[in-house]
Specification:
By secondary structure, the protein is α/β, with parallel strands linked by helices. The protein is built from 13 helices and 14 strands. A hairpin with a 4-residue loop joins strand 1 and strand 2. The radius of gyration is 22 Å and the shape is globular.
């Protein structure tokens, strides 16, 4: 599976700072100091609907992580998956009278278009669940052979008790875990499981649903969490720098994925830091496909909204914050974009050296994009009020905003 084309990242003078970011597993800010190649895995979409603002906010956050790392002169090895077979996708295909593979391909293509328009840097490896099945099956077999998995009526489950570190990503209690498991794809009420929280690794073939050869597991398809583990271990290995996604993935997805990997390898941790973006709401409720309260990136683009304004609307909120999409949010972003473009269109302006340092400082401090935007606002206001004599300033501002915030002026 291919990703989307990369936009050029302008070179900037000097170098940025190492990133300090909130780690869900410790509840504290940690300083990330990767080697020459920083490794990040961000969980991708289940492609049964177009990219909504919640998706865009999440991927925008991890695009900032990449840009901070690139500004420290590191390379970035970014991996993202596509869950191109799963219950929600199959259910939507049936409801719409679609072929499930065509639905997945169509929505994945639209996602790529949205990411390109928003100028989000693409992953080096963009991998679908279906193409990963030959890698997934041996992992499930290894877990079963190690006593970390068991069969129940043809399905194969992971035993959470096989990982001594289970629970150390989310730190939720058993009652919360059980509730979230039921809400987010688990089956804690199924009789016969060793632990209600045990997640499925391999689902035996169901009538009328797609299935693949599972070797000793029998025909079926993979569970949700093992998909990401197989892809991450194949391309990044254990102990990579950042596992990222929305805060709704803390449990069960990231908790279970960590336990799968740790049980497989005997190593800990799966990722050095677990980083999670907040949720975007509309009309007082979290924006989600199940609720249908969605604002789509593609619909805004069709209405003529500049993708740079959409990106500025996302950047105006701290990545970990929960916030609400409104018409006023977009209006403010459009007006900000106009002010910034007017400011950099002049032949000279106030010195921008301090501004570059402010943007770098803000982003290195837990991706404080709102503070970075405020710094550019101040420079643009000074430009509008009295201008300046630095002929290189507008160009430096334009390059800095592009390289560090992903906004083309």
């Amino acid at each position: 599976m291919h990703a989307w084309p990369a936009s050029e990242v302008p070179a900037l003078p000097g170098s940025g700072r190492d990133l300090r970011i909130h780690d869900t597993a410790t509840g504290e800010r940690v300083t990330l100091a990767p080697g020459p190649v920083a490794r990040i895995y961000v969980c991708g979409i289940t492609p049964y609907d177009a990219t909504h603002m919640g998706h865009a906010a999440t991927y925008n956050a991890f695009d900032l992580v990449q840009r901070v790392w690139l500004d420290t002169k590191r390379q970035v090895h970014y991996v993202q998956n596509v869950t191109d077979v799963d219950d929600p996708l199959l259910e939507r295909a049936v409801a719409n009278g679609d072929d499930w593979t065509e639905l997945a391909e169509r929505e994945t293509a639209l996602f790529r278009e949205d990411m390109t328009a928003l100028r989000l840097l693409p992953p080096r490896h963009y991998i679908g669940a279906v193409e990963s099945i030959p890698k997934i099956v041996p992992l499930v077999e290894r877990l079963r052979e190690a006593g970390a998995a068991y069969e129940l009526e043809g399905d194969t489950y992971f035993s959470v008790e096989s990982d001594a570190h289970f629970g150390q990503v989310s730190h939720y209690d058993a009652e919360v875990m059980r509730r979230l498991s039921a809400e987010r794809g688990g089956d804690p009420e199924r009789p016969g499981k060793k632990n209600p929280l045990d997640p499925m690794l391999w689902m035996a073939a169901r009538p009328g649903e797609p299935s693949w050869d599972g070797a000793s597991l029998g025909p079926g398809r993979p569970g949700w969490h093992i998909e990401c583990v197989a892809i991450a271990l194949e391309h990044l290995g254990m102990g990579f720098d950042v596992q990222g996604g929305g805060s709704d993935l803390i449990f069960p997805h990231h908790e279970m994925g960590a336990s799968h990997a740790q049980a497989l390898t005997g190593e800990h941790p799966f990722a050095q830091a677990y980083v999670h973006a907040g949720m975007v709401a509309l009309h007082g409720e979290k924006m989600s496909k199940s609720k249908g309260n969605l604002v789509f990136v593609s619909a805004l683009r069709r209405d003529g909204v500049d993708p740079a304004a959409i990106r500025l609307a996302l950047l105006a909120h701290h990545y970990r914050a929960d916030w609400e999409w409104t018409d006023a949010v977009l209006t403010e972003a459009v007006e900000r974009l106009d002010r910034w473009r007017a400011a950099v269109s002049r032949p000279d302006g106030p010195s921008a050296d301090a501004l570059l340092a402010e943007i770098r400082e803000a982003l290195a401090d837990d991706l404080d994009a709102p503070a970075a935007l405020a710094a550019v606002d101040r420079w643009a206001a000074a430009q509008a009020a009295s201008g300046g004599s630095d002929e290189g300033a507008p160009g430096l501002v334009s390059r800095a905003v592009d390289a560090l915030l992903g906004v083309a002026l």
